[in-house]
Amino acid sequence: VEDAPWWTRAVVYQIYPRSFQDSDGDGVGDLRGIISRLDHLSALGVDVVWLSPIYRSPQDDNGYDISDYQDVDPSFGTLADLDELIAGLHERGMKLLMDLVVNHTSDEHPWFTESRSGPDSPKRDWYWWRPPRAGMAPGQPGAEPTNWHSFFSGSTWELDEASGEYYLHLFSRKQPDLNWENPEVRQAVYAMMRWWLDRGVDGFRMDVINLISKDTTLPDGPVVAGVWGDGSPHYTDGPRVHEYLQEMHREVFEGRADRLLTVGETPGVTLEEARKYTDPARREVDMVFQFEHVGLDHGPGGKFDPKPLRLTDLKATFGRWQAGLADAGWNSLYWDNHDQPRVVSRFGDDGEHRRASAKALATLLHLHRGTPYVYQGEELGMTNAHFTRFDQYRDIESVNHVAQARTLTSATDEQLLAGLAAMSRDNARTPVQWDASPHAGFTTGTPWLAVNPNHVEVNAEAERADPDSVFHHHRRLIELRHADPVVALGDFTMLLPEDEQVYAYTRALDGDALLVVVNVSGEERAVDLGDAWPLAHDGGWGDLVLGTHADAGGPTTLRPWEARVVRRR
Ligand code: TEU
């Protein structure tokens, strides 16, 4: 138990700097704003902060398009501010993870402007340049080198008029993909990473790191949207990705890996691949973010065509990942981040049962084996934005999706707005609700994205004042992980896999056992666990360690959205 890595007991908190706290009234969050809120993080008790990108950037994708990896964007502050943030976190016993976005750069990065300067540029091969499809003229419809559909709509290829060649961008046209086949690219990235570690950061969250290796023959994919095809099999967990990550480990982390945390963001990753990424013996990364559970409510038309979650699907997914990474590798546990809608609105009930459902879902997640991630505002039970007009949205994915759907499909405005309201990334990006004042204490100016009007009730000040709040429930969950080795390291067993209402499992370590039972519904429910968890003499499950409801309730009956963590007597 003592030998287990420190991050098995840790909880990570994600900050999306644009929306966390503004210090200078320009309506955009910044580093000095974060520094002013460090006591909130201390009070919550988190161990690590993952900071979404603050590097110099044209902000086409809110900082995931980087034009200088070794400087801070003026809208967020200065390198000196960042040094102060690192020091402030370290003083309070917290670590800092930087977001590492190296599948692509901004098209305004000097590497790309050099590469674009012409076919003879020494950096031409740092990106993916290709001529038009054989026999076709540059710019002719269908002349793109592959039919791949971009994550942000349209083609993954943009024509450069000057050279008549196309460059690859899996995301926006302002995010050209780096060519990791080129060893100079890899060495430049490793040097940058060493520079940050030497400056005092404690690790990286690696953006779409499982997309960095492409099949160099660039085959077309099956058509999925109009004329566009799905290229993902040709760049997801690609042919050389494990080789690159092992090289990165040798070149960057060797000798200091123990104090660091590395987490790969890996959309589309399979369990089999995740085992390879996270098996400590392979020296790649400590853990990855998998996407299966956040795809369970995607409908036939994709993420903007959502369908209700079936609880049995969630159990099948989490159960498989718990079992699959039990003896090698490690899970990341998350509901929310800056790309996902708010869980209380998505899988909970953000009306009548907002508080209870936020606490129940947090309990369900945090008691699994793995490292939990809390996204800013999740600890307050913040909800989706509930926007009703197109002009309220800012996110490039949402804006481009609407434009494309209008040309390729017959979707009505009402249908498009419903899709965005449920799934837009802007749901997670509304400013953090600090108090009940105008703009929720986020800014004295005009916020870049509207503050949710429910901040008059849902805010950090109110949450911190109430011992029964979503905030204090998260604080207790974090405390429990720190204190209890069963939570950090115990074996996982799923119970009631066929039940559509109750999510239940046990964790066990060295004869000590915990039961987690969660009512994932607004209806009361008597729960019979049979032989899986024999009842104690008083007819109950054992000693309550942590629960969503202050008063005891029936011994084996759960109220709407009630969750209990119980220790075997
Ligand atoms: O996201 C990658 C990713 O695959 C998604 O979660 C993405 O948001 C997708 O569009 C969902 O439909 C990462 C970042 O987290 C995201 O914010 C960036 O936009 C993206 O990479 C490009 O850097």
TrEMBL record:
A single GO molecular function term of this UniProt record: alpha-amylase activity
One Pfam family recorded for the sequence: Alpha-amylase
GO BP of this protein: oligosaccharide catabolic process
Record-annotated Glycosyl hydrolase family 13 catalytic domain positions: 14-429
Superkingdom per UniProt: Bacteria
Keyword tags: Glycosidase, Hydrolase
Family: Belongs to the glycosyl hydrolase 13 family.
Protein name: Glucohydrolase
Organism: Cellulomonas pakistanensis
